[in-house]
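Task: encode each sequence below as structure tokens.

Item 1
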Amino acid sequence: MLDLIRLRLRERTATLDYPHGPAPELPERFRGRPARDPARCVAGCACGGGPLDLGTNLFSPEEAAACPGGAMTYTRDYRMAVGSRAALITPTGEVALARALEERTRRLFGRSLRLRSVVAGSCGGCEAELVALGNVVFDLARFGVQFVASPRHADGIVITGAVNVNMRRALRDTYDAVPEPKLVLAVGACALSGGPFRGSPEVAGGVPPEIPVNLWIPGCPPHPLTMLDGILRLLGGLEEH
């Protein structure tokens, strides 16, 4: 026991002082929000000169290298969660970040938000980052947000995966089981657009339109800070940032 106490004293506080402390330092290899310079697009560019869609972006170096003019790069900005699917389509990579829920809904969810995870045909990457939100570094629970086992005990659902054929009804039943009012968070490229499986008849191309989404979080997979930032914005905890 004494050894454990000494270890904790040496390690000090591991939890990020987020969102009040200095901006977290992410490693140089981190690929955050894409940035695109339309003026550098050349003939044969993979994007065709059109806008970027962060909802379909897999954040791979190959996507940036596909533009011979070097028009697209990755920044180290983890802030990308938005309030609508259309907000992820941008000519430069800049996006209008998610805004807080209306005040009455915020009062209901702001101090105690319970979420149910729905894995609707995923590789497991997004779920690994969601699990990381609960570790000592990010500690999502300190903001009153926790995951629960039943949709009937939840305030909303977190959807990951491309929504394959076998999960469509299960997703709909889970959504219907959550009592009103409820929130829906779509996490990762697969949930936003079908990801690398987009266009396949086996997937729905992400969350189906009959399920209204309150927060769209891009990434493949999204960094825990991207998810944490989006959730806090939705709950009104980052209105001045």
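Item 2
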Amino acid sequence: MPTTVAMPALSPTMTEGTLARWLVKEGDSVSAGDVIAEIETDKATMEVEAADEGSVGRLLVAEGTEGVLVNRPIAVLLGEGEDASVLDGFRPEEAAPEPAAPEPEETPAPAPPPPGESSAGRIFASPLARRMAEKAGLDLSAVRGTGPRGRIVKADVEAALAAPAPAPAHAQVRAAPPPPAGGGEVVPHTGMRKAIARRLLDSKRTVPHFYLTADCGFDRLLAVRKELNGRDGADYGLTVNDFVVRAAALALRRTPEANASWSDDGMVRHASVDVSVAVALDAGLITPIVRDADRKGLADISREMKDLAARAREGVLRPEEYEGGTFSVSNLGMFGVREFSAIVNPPQAAILAVGAGESRPVVKDGALAVATVASCTLSCDHRVIDGVLGARLLEAFKGFVEDPVTMLL
């Protein structure tokens, strides 16, 4: 009997992906474990493996198709001895496996109106169906529900998306938005850019931000860095950012109340200190994670960050390498940015923005002097971190940066 290959969930938060490339064609034989396609998520390109052996009977989704929902059939495999004739009348959506942990449907409201209609402006649909429709730009009022009492459920949305939409007689097909007035072009958004826009908009709209800035002296840090990198046999090249990540991790260990996240049920206190570090890409940015950063030395952090950053730019990071951090660091000092405020990346409760180290006049022991100083700004979710707690976290970070030998202990 033919079996279907479904769009896999390559991360816990993935709801859709882009089928970037098929590595097989119809009629090809495949074995379990063979890579058959490449899928682009909003952060990386991942491979899809065949779970069974057989031959490719039909490719259901064309290369380059965006917004393919998780668990939607993308191909059909034929079993041993089967040929394409067995696909006559075969419905891939009926043979597709159910998700491992589908979202439970809420208890239907009593006596909802007939399918396609609403009462007092309300359309009866499950939360999952609403999210899928919103993401796809689908008007739920035009969807017929097959759930209890005509309620719209996930399968109804998938069926509506799969069905060709009849265009009105007066509709005009437009392949692309018109160019802006005065010339130029409209560059389509990438999946990564859409994800960044959605997440940051949600953060600024739902997270109560506040900001704390401290000027940190970097002279001793730069001297220690130069000494360590100049040692005979040193097989590392420490960067200022490696010290920043280490200092942030140690500061979080000293103030564990700040290594937390907000939830409606209670404060989530994280057992490990996992620092996400912003890495710029051509299409946007990604935040690979240094796990247990407070337990790693500077050389280990340096090697790990170089590897993560390189693979991030190649688009081959695994989801677990960029999802689930407890705190973020964003450093724009290398671009000469003096000071900036970063946006909290939920569910994290804080992010540290590091500006450029520059020569500034300072007062030392009552006398005017020149020192290398960088302005570091901590953005906090006020639901989790109050002003005093944020100040303690930033104070601890400043202490490690200005006395970097303490990071080596």
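Check on item 2: Residues 275 and 290 are 5 Å apart (CA to CA). The first strand starts at residue 3 and ends at 6.
End of task.
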